[in-house]
Design brief:
Blueprint (H helix, E strand, L loop, with lengths): L1 E3 L4 E7 L6 E8 L3 H14 L5 E5 L9 H17 L3 E5 L3 H11 L4 H29 L1
Parallel strand pairs: 1-4, 4-5
Antiparallel strand pairs: 1-2, 2-3
Helix pairs in contact: 1-2, 3-4
Amino acid sequence: MGLDLGARRIGVAVSDPLRIIAQGLPTLEVHGRKAVLAALASLVEEQDVARIVVGLPLRLSGEEGPEALAARTFAAQLAGRVHLPVELWDERLTTVQAERTLLEGNTRRKRRRQERDRLAAILILQGWLDAQAFAGAG
């Protein structure tokens, strides 16, 4: 499962059983940490998730800011809740890439807001899946 964390929404993606392709799930609205952790725990069970990849929002320089610290904290809390491996994955520019993709598809503004986080989660998970496939091929 891949997650794109945001203050208001969390984009969610899962992979196919062969871990080749990421696909989006409905975006979660954030209404408190406990509620989000409970919702994610339910999704983990429903989707038979074995590992979670959380986007780590690094600065363009590669340095970590407050958002990265928040992602690390959230990942640790989630790992404690679901008792699964939770990894952090560099998500630099995934939201920009998602927005650009939606603009190129002539997606309306309201729809873009709804889809941006889901698409960013897909990009995060797909990047992780591709890196794992590449590492396994070598």
